[in-house]
Amino acid sequence: MLWTGACLYSPALAEVMNRPSAKYWHLVSAIALGVGLFVIIILRPRAIGQVVREVDTFDENDRLWLRGGTKRLFDHKGAPEQGWLNAGQKLFTAVTSGLMIVLTITGLLLWLGEQNTTYRFAGSVDVHDLATLLIIVLTCGHLYLALISPATRAATRGIVTGSIDREWAKQNHARWVRDMEQRNQ
Amino acid sequence: MMRAMEQPPEHPTPTPRSRIPLGRAAFLGTVAAGVGGIALFSRFGGGVGSSLASLGDNLGVAAIVPTGGWRIYNVQDPMPTFDAATYSLTIDGNVENPVTLTWNDVQATDMAMQVTDFHCVTGWSVDKVHWRGITAQTIIDLVKPRPQAQNVNFQSLEQPYFDQLTLKQFKLPNVMLATEMDGKPLERAHGAPMRLVIPQMYGYKGVKWLSKITFENEPTLGFWETRGYDADAWVGKDVSH
């Protein structure tokens, strides 16, 4: 989606892929993304529900965590104890999910608006562009924290292998560790 | 090691809940900002676009991001390349005086200037574009279409792109064959050396890389019309059949 969107957006890339082809594959990849997400929700509804509940659970410790500002992204020492997701991860998930909804709405308006003036708004393309830019920035930050930052990249092991270093987890997600230990007693 | 996703706690350690459910607020707030932004940019986007255009030009990134407002669309790869030595514009069909103009002939023809807005059917616009070119009336006076010739076909060097106007539409004010845009010769991406400009209609009617104009008796559906778009692409009107 990103590549075909770039070909539709950037004058420098207009010649790499003509508009009919770029638009076609952009729509196909958007549908594939939507179908993929739907399949995940259908196959793992409990897990998705747990993520939604976790993201929507915002407590005093989360508020204090966010008050620490961007330095929390790189140094979790002294931070209020966090659960399975820290406050930054919750905020990232919520905002990114919202941006995907915005992209879907504006994308539909752009697609339908080409042949029906009822759906044609000059602002649709501007918001679509802006939402894409924001998601790119957020994703780059996410990838940096996941793969490069020494303070956070240990979490990637949990995604890849399903296991995480206990000491790292105690430092960064203490409440989750305690809950797990209590559950396993 | 701990299993990361094994049995997430159903009853986590209770901690004081914030009054504001930030997750929900952030999600809904983002969606609301996006939807509200559609209305905001629709109303004030022109001012934002002009400011970005200047900034983009000053930073030299206008080719990477459409800060000038222009997005470049073509239907075939690669785009045609203009060669002044070999270029010709053929104007024929049901006319008394068919001609084939070389690039020197084109440049020697009387030109006019106009400043009009450009609107794309996908929703973006560029305000106050300065065009310079040959007016439609100049072409009509040159080739003298016969009375039965009520339609004008425009063929592009970008095969198979072409489109058509009625003769009445071709005679509208500010319809021209533009060779310059904003004080400079048309760039390749904008249809060099010549493109049809008809400000009253959406941009897909403005055939780029013009190579031939044919005056015909019968109407013909253009490239986008055969794909469901309207032949009469008036700005602000539906373009579906």
Could you outline the blueprint of secondary structure elements for this entry?
The complex is a heterodimer of chains A (about 180) and B (about 240).
Chain A: H1 2-9, H2 19-43, H3 45-56, H4 60-67, H5 87-113, H6 122-147, H7 155-161, E1 163-164, H8 166-172, H9 174-184
Helix pairs in contact in A: 1-2, 5-6, 8-9
Chain B: E1 2-3, H1 22-59, E2 88-93, E3 99-102, H2 103-108, E4 112-119, E5 125-135, H3 136-143, E6 151-156, E7 162-166, H4 167-170, E8 176-181, E9 184-185, E10 195-197, E11 210-216
Task: Please explain how this structure is put together.
- The complex is a heterodimer of chains A (185) and B (241).
- By secondary structure, chain A is mainly alpha-helical.
- Chain A has a single domain (44-184), classed as Fumarate Reductase Cytochrome B subunit, CATH 1.20.950.
- Chain A contains nine helices and one strand.
- Chain A has helices spanning 2-9, 19-43, 45-56, 60-67, 87-113, 122-147, 155-161, 166-172, 174-184; one strand spanning 163-164.
- In chain A, helix 1 runs antiparallel to helix 2 and helix 5 (87-113) packs antiparallel against helix 6 (122-147).
- The longest helix of chain A is centred in the middle third of the chain and has 27 residues, at 87-113.
- Chain B starts with a strand and ends in a 25-residue tail after the last strand.
- The model of chain B has no long low-confidence stretch (mean pLDDT 87).
- The interface between A and B is large, with 75 and 68 residues.
